[in-house]
Amino acid sequence: MRNQFSLAHLTALACPPPRLTYIAARAGYDFVSIRPIAMKLKNEPDYNLAKNKSMLRDTKTALRQTGLQVLDIELAKIEDGMEPKQYEPAFEVGAELGARHVLCSVWTDDEVFANERFIELCELAKHYQLTIELEFVPVASVATLKQAVRMLQAAAQDNAGLMIDAHHFHRSKENVGDIKRIPASWFHMFHLCDAVKEIPSAKEQMLKIMREERLYIGEGGIPIKEILQQIPKIPYSLEIPHLQRVKELGFEEYARRCLVSAKKYISLFQDDVNIS
């Protein structure tokens, strides 16, 4: 079975889902990953497909015409005061589009509250045949692999998974060997990217790299090969935002180069890992 790749929305966030889908197809991707739940950050576009019915229709058309599938939707944040039901319209849209997974991260320090809401999210997602993929983020409340594993163990939900982002794994100073102890059934997708080896000490600089300056696969200092050696074969979502390169190359050519770099990097050691 060949490797499969998705174009993550953050790589080309300025592109609405229909345009993102056509770009992904022309660039050679197998999936597209879309963001119908806005993170409410400054200058971030809002692609609320549950409310924007015309954009939803156009997205369905783009998927039908290209033959691409939706790998995941994002981002179901667990933060103080949130209720899982607020994400149900997006879950319904995700199911309509054939999505498989929903990304989730935790931004509250109330561990009991977070665990309860995570279980509720999983239960809600079951109605739409979706999994909830917990992503640890170094600037969030669940910031490490250990914290994410503990939360998944406590939840004990059969539609919950662990979503590792190569950038976050490296920035959280994780040990590659710890992945061996994670159940293979928890892995459904992986965020593939690269970044400079040096870990910024300032949160602002880390955020800037995370959202604006990630690198082509093999260009930076993240131990990508070693990480991939420890996980089963799953789709790789290329989340590689780099604003300057997009300005220079345009979204489609940049997306194509991201994919080329990933395929080239993996081909160098394909026979040695679980990605043959």
Task: Explain the overall architecture.
With 276 residues, this protein is an alpha/beta fold. It has a single domain, classed as Divalent-metal-dependent TIM barrel enzymes (TIM Barrel). The protein is 38% helix and 14% strand. It is built from ten helices and nine strands. Strands 6-5-4-3-2-1-9-8-7 form a nine-stranded parallel sheet. The chain is globular and about 45 Å long. It starts with a strand and ends in a 9-residue tail after the last helix. The model has no long low-confidence stretch (mean pLDDT 95). Residues 23-241 form the Xylose isomerase-like TIM barrel domain. InterPro entries: IolE/XylAMocC-like, Xyl_isomerase-like_sf, Xyl_isomerase-like_TIM-brl. Pfam families: AP_endonuc_2.
Give the ordered list of helices and strands. Answer: EHEHEHEHEHEEHEHHEHH
β-sheet strand percentage: 5-15%
Number of domains: 1
Low-confidence stretches: none
CATH topology: the name is TIM Barrel
Total DSSP helices: 10
Q: What is the structure about, briefly put?
A:
By secondary structure, the protein is an alpha/beta fold. It has helices spanning 17-27, 53-66, 88-96, 111-126, 145-155, 166-171, 203-212, 224-228, 243-249, 251-267; strands at residues 5-8, 31-34, 69-78, 101-106, 131-134, 160-162, 164-165, 190-192, 236-238.
